[in-house]
Design a protein that fits this description.
The protein is α/β, with parallel strands linked by helices and 497 residues long. It is 36% helix and 18% strand. It holds the Pfam family Methyltransf_28. Keywords: Methyltransferase, Mitochondrion, Transferase.
Length: 497
């Protein structure tokens, strides 16, 4: 049984007093300016000591593990697609890092999003107008969050529950209304009355965003509502089941049922050509797209691609090869062409002469820092170009994240244990129990999207977008502070123009 085993591991981890970054109540989807300020005011405890079980999820060395080289040569190469039908985590195999991450997050039997995630619901919308300030909103949020989990524990206690939320839930219905305001305005400007308003949403969670959008359109513009169709694309069978039973029941109660259909399929398996103009919503999904890891020879600048080896005991080891697979090689080619002239973060940005001097130092590393490249995101752009040629993308995600592992564009890898966040230092972790989320370099992403789809885009900050499209008075506290605008300073929005 893996649950008692994981519980034992975490209990031993927490025999030492955890550091403040491990005990932060803030969850994966919330990085507010207020929350971070509150953390800075808390007294810090002593540094966390190494756990005797830390090696169960963390690689022991940054060098090539020579004693595993024979196994690396002998073990078969597998992909995340080949592992979909497996009920147990694989052993005695090797795979590219993107396949390891994809399998960890989305495997139907043990993946993080398939089995572990619970989405927080705040209950009634927050009454911002009657809250004194942003600090009181934060306190009310914490109270509701704790109350929600208390009710879950009363039904079934789970010390490893993975509970998180989205801004859609936190700022319901105002967040969804802002998105709907943007959709209706652009639909009427470009497509009405010749085309229907066709909306696709990838990763709809509880379906709250969809319901808020449909409610707004019906109230604000009944004529547009009559032409509206909404399609949900959901990779998680568990969430798709929730949506089918609860979301459609709610849609029927609200009169939206005939507007909605749900497709339980990965967007990467999509094979239906959609010729109609449509809006494609991808809100906070890029951060969980699988990435490849690349390191470079600091002298020759030759890239090397990372793979994960899983031995017979289930331990993880990282290897690098000069033979890039076609997907990673294509990403580097497209990026070089699309981003020519644009400076972006890269492990080799240090001048060559400094790298040469550094390489002569004792114990100098023979490879650069790791760089995580969003190869799945590139694949997503391919799907949009091939199957949704007349789409307009609306996407929001984090451009920076705290507590990331070492590397360029590196992910945050974390889990929850007894309501405390536990960040670790490598994505090579027990599959399915850790969230692995990446920041998005919107400058690079914008250029690659344009190169692949041929469409023009605009990138704004989260605050700029919602200042323009939200009814900001609805989320303003009595002293004039506005959490909708201030709580996501590390998020950006990109739209197709």
């Amino acid at each position: 049984m893996e649950s008692p085993l994981l519980s034992q591991l975490f209990k031993q981890l927490f025999t030492h007093r955890p550091c403040s970054s491990c005990t932060r109540h803030t969850t994966r989807r919330l990085y507010s300016s207020y929350g971070k300020a509150a953390e800075r005011r808390r007294p810090r405890g002593p540094e966390k000591e190494s756990s005797p079980l830390e090696s169960n999820w963390q690689q022991r060395t940054d060098h090539f593990p020579r004693d595993k080289l024979d196994e690396y040569k002998r073990f078969p190469v597998v992909t995340s697609d080949a592992l979909r039908s497996r009920k147990e985590r694989p052993r005695r195999v090797r795979m590219l890092m993107r396949d390891f991450i994809e399998d960890s997050l989305y495997n139907p039997s043990y993946g993080y999003f398939s089995k572990q995630v619970v989405i927080w619901r705040p209950g009634e919308p927050f009454d911002f107008a009657n809250l004194p300030d942003e600090a009181s909103f934060y306190a009310e949020y914490q109270r509701r969050y704790t109350e929600f989990e208390d009710l879950l524990d009363a039904k079934e206690y789970n010390e490893t529950r993975q509970l998180w939320h989205t801004p859609t839930e936190l700022f319901r219905p105002y967040y969804g209304e802002a998105i709907a305001h943007y959709l209706v305005a652009n639909y009427k400007l470009q497509l009405y009355p010749y085309e229907d308003l066709l909306i696709y949403e990838m990763g709809a969670g509880n379906g709250t965003l969809m319901m808020n959008i449909l409610d707004y359109i019906r109230e604000a513009d009944p004529e547009v509502y009559a032409r509206t169709r909404f399609r949900v694309i959901e990779v998680s069978s568990a969430l798709a089941s929730i949506q089918q039973h609860q979301l459609l029941r709610s849609a029927e109660a609200k009169g939206h049922a005939d507007k909605v259909s749900i497709v339980n399929r990965s967007i990467f398996d999509w094979d239906t050509y959609v010729s109609s103009p449509c809006f494609f919503l991808a809100m906070e999904v890029f951060d969980n797209f699988a990435h490849d890891v690349i390191r470079y020879d600091p002298l020759t600048e030759e890239p090397m691609q990372g793979s994960a080896l899983i031995d017979a005991e289930g331990e993880f080891y990282e290897f690098y090869s000069k033979d890039l697979d076609p997907v990673a090689a294509r990403y580097l080619r497209v990026r070089d062409a699309a981003c020519a002239g644009r400076p972006y973060n890269h492990p080799l940005r240090q001048p060559r002469i400094l790298r040469n001097l550094r390489s002569k130092l004792p114990l100098a590393p023979n490879l650069s820092r790791p760089e995580y490249i969003p190869t799945r995101l590139m694949h997503f752009f391919d799907v949009l170009r091939e199957y949704f040629p007349n789409h307009k993308l609306v996407t929001s995600d984090f451009h920076s994240l705290p507590d990331a592992v070492e590397g360029v564009n590196a992910p945050v890898v974390q889990t929850r244990y007894e309501r405390r966040m536990v960040p670790v230092t490598t994505p090579l972790v027990h599959q399915g129990f850790f969230d692995i989320l990446f920041p998005t370099d919107f400058g690079v992403m914008e250029d690659m999207y344009r190169a692949i789809t041929g469409k023009l885009t605009r990138v704004t900050t989260h605050e700029e977008f919602f200042k323009r499209w939200a009814y900001v008075e609805d989320t303003q506290t009595r002293n004039g502070e506005n959490p909708l605008l201030s709580w996501y300073k590390n998020a950006s929005v990109m739209i197709t123009v």
